[in-house]
Design brief:
Length: about 475
């Protein structure tokens, strides 16, 4: 039976690719001198967890106590539940460890929870914020040392060490940028471990990780363990941020075309939100989408309802003679077509090209006796509005989704446009109203200044978005 004979919707797991990914990450960890404790939240699958152990992992990381229980009952005996524990979950965690005999390691970033763990017999990591700003103690704070000291007393618990997650590595656009995040995570964690050791607190292990950071890290000196998760399959997000190649993606969803109306610029497949993530992926590397169709770069998985997936193309004519009901398509999850120019690039182009265009236009019109600032304001407002409209209706096939894609850029453009329009309104009113006319003469330069500040803020935003990814 060929893969395409399988009844759909079906998840296709490309075992050869997965095994290659496991080998590659195991080799990387060895070369970097760290142990691997992969995050199993990506697959939630006992067989794949066992395969990771076969490929050298020392244990697994899990996201929920239910996952911990399933893996422990399946005989995977060394697990970290990498989610901040609160006192209310301690009894359940102890029960799992007691009933299965597994070593269950929990994660804490709160002094009260750390005190509550005393006497639990559990292994405990201190969660540290390495720059992702989601959970974890601030390593520069006294509070971080106070929690570490409480754990370091080891009153009926084992203090394993410190743990961080570099989720902000997903905001990068290349391996070089991810390597910078990895190095900053390493230096924050190693620096904090040294600070604790100087304070007499024993830190046995330093655990870090996210797939983009570990895939890019050049050096992990001082770190003992890495916890990448996504690498087992990768996905289109990882391709788009330069973390892996398209050929490294180890899962896809096989779907059947179930509706394609004549003249429509979309068709419907039997893979919806239940089969594909509704997560539209990162916004900083291009328009978001819920998936890409393998070998069909002009198609986008545009919207998902529970069982329906709507696949769109820009222009109905491009679907003529393609995709009749019963055809199969292979969808790479959480992806979008790479053909459209990334908004950040377009926005940056406007930020660079905009001012000279405006100034040129303004000097020409000035000869026709229209004031420089009035011209700047109006041309700026028109361009901003055109750019926002362009983002919304030209770049992405689905206008509703386009509005979302354009949102961060829309905000920046809106700030420009509002400043420009407000300045324009003031200039026109103060010139027209006799009582305001004396003010008019003095406020022109301030209006131009406000416009320039708005422009500079915008340029700064574009550069920030372009270099760092959207926040
Ligand atoms: C605490 C923690 N560690 C490790 C990971 C693994 O990250 P990734 O899936 O990017 O490899 C995650 C993922 O969310 C996580 O939350």
């Amino acid at each position: 039976m060929k893969a395409y004979d399988v009844e759909t919707p079906a998840l296709l797991l490309h075992l050869d690719v997965v095994e290659r990914n496991l080998t590659h990450m195991a080799t990387r960890a060895r070369q970097l001198g760290v142990a691997l404790r992969p995050h199993a939240k990506t697959h939630k699958c006992v067989e794949l967890g066992r395969l990771q152990l076969e490929y050298g992992a020392r244990g697994l990381t899990v996201a929920t106590l239910v996952e911990a229980e399933v893996f422990a009952r399946a005989g995977i005996m060394d697990l970290t539940w990498a989610f901040p524990i609160d006192p209310g979950h301690i009894a359940h965690a102890r029960r799992i460890a007691h009933d299965t005999g597994a070593t269950l390691r929990v994660v804490v970033d709160d002094l009260g929870a750390a005190r509550a763990l005393a006497g639990s017999g559990l292994h405990v990591w201190l969660k540290v914020d390495c720059g992702y700003h989601r959970a974890g103690v601030d390593p520069a704070s006294d509070y971080a040392v106070a929690v570490a000291r409480e754990l370091g007393r080891e009153q009926g618990l084992s203090f394993d060490g410190i743990l961080s997650h570099s989720g902000h590595a997903y905001r990068t656009t290349s391996k070089a940028e991810a390597a910078v995040v990895a190095e900053s995570e390493r230096s924050v964690m190693v620096g904090f471990a040294e600070r604790l050791r100087r304070d007499g607190i024993s830190v046995r292990e330093v655990s870090v990780g996210s797939t983009p950071a570990i895939a890019a890290a050049a050096d992990l000196t001082g770190v003992t363990e890495a916890r990448p998760g996504n690498y087992v399959f990768y996905d289109r997000t990882m391709v788009l941020i330069g973390c892996c190649e398209p050929a490294d993606v180890g899962v896809s969803v096989l779907a059947t075309v179930v509706s394609h109306q004549p003249g429509a610029s979309h068709f419907v497949v039997d893979a919806g939100a239940l089969e594909l993530s509704k997560d539209p992926g990162p916004a900083h590397v291009g328009p978001q989408a819920m998936g890409a169709v393998k070998d069909e770069p002009d198609l986008t998985v545009a919207t998902l309802s529970q069982e329906h997936g709507v696949i769109r193309v820009a222009g109905a004519a491009r679907l003529d003679g393609r995709f009749t009901v019963g055809d199969k398509v292979e969808i790479i999850p959480r992806a979008r077509a790479m053909s459209a120019p990334p908004p950040a690039v377009a926005a940056l182009a406007w930020a660079v090209a905009g001012p000279p265009i405006l100034i040129y236009g303004a000097t020409r019109i000035r000869r026709g006796k229209i004031g420089l600032h009035v011209t700047l304001m109006s041309v700026s407002a028109v361009i901003e509005i055109a750019v926002v409209a362009g983002f919304s209706f030209l770049m992405v096939p689905s206008p509703r989704r386009a509005a979302l894609v354009a949102l961060p850029f829309f905000k920046i453009h809106l700030a420009f446009a509002v400043t420009a329009l407000a300045g324009l309104a003031w200039q026109l009113t103060s010139r027209a109203v006799a009582r305001l006319r004396p003010l008019h003469r003095h406020t022109g330069p301030y209006v131009v200044l406000a416009w320039c500040l708005a422009l500079l803020t915008g340029i700064y935003n574009y550069v920030f978005l372009y270099v760092m990814g959207s926040p």
